[in-house]
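User:
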Amino acid sequence: MDSTYVLGAQGNLWTEQIPTEAHLEYMLYPRALAMAESFWTPEKQKDWPNFVARVEEHGKRMDEAKINHAPSMYDPIITVKKNSQGKIVIDLAAEVPGLDIYYTVDNTMPNQYSLRYTTAFELPAGVDNLRVITYRKGEVLGRLITLKTEELEKRIKK
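Assistant: Predicted structure:
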């Protein structure tokens, strides 16, 4: 597509299922920042780490202004597959550079003293839940993600 023909951009947020202003804010931010970045920053100037740093600065301003913004960019990315023995293998990643990912498979809540993710791992037999959270320098940044084994099986990449 030739961008010289693009006159503007639009991002929709349908509010039929958004009950409060706080939830509206949560759905808008930082998505609105990402849309502005995507629509108005020339391709050669796009830089993910720089964008993350700017979103974090805006996040501080939103906190000061009591704007409810989503922390989803800090959430771990969970990829599930089966190995050649048919066992579930979990691969974790983070969109934001510099995050540490911690997880548990024993139904406890993960923290910075739990297993630190370094490489894909086989889910032990009999596990009920995988729980994952991200930290940076000892501070929780991502939301706690809990997935039951049945949910992990539904995510398996064929």
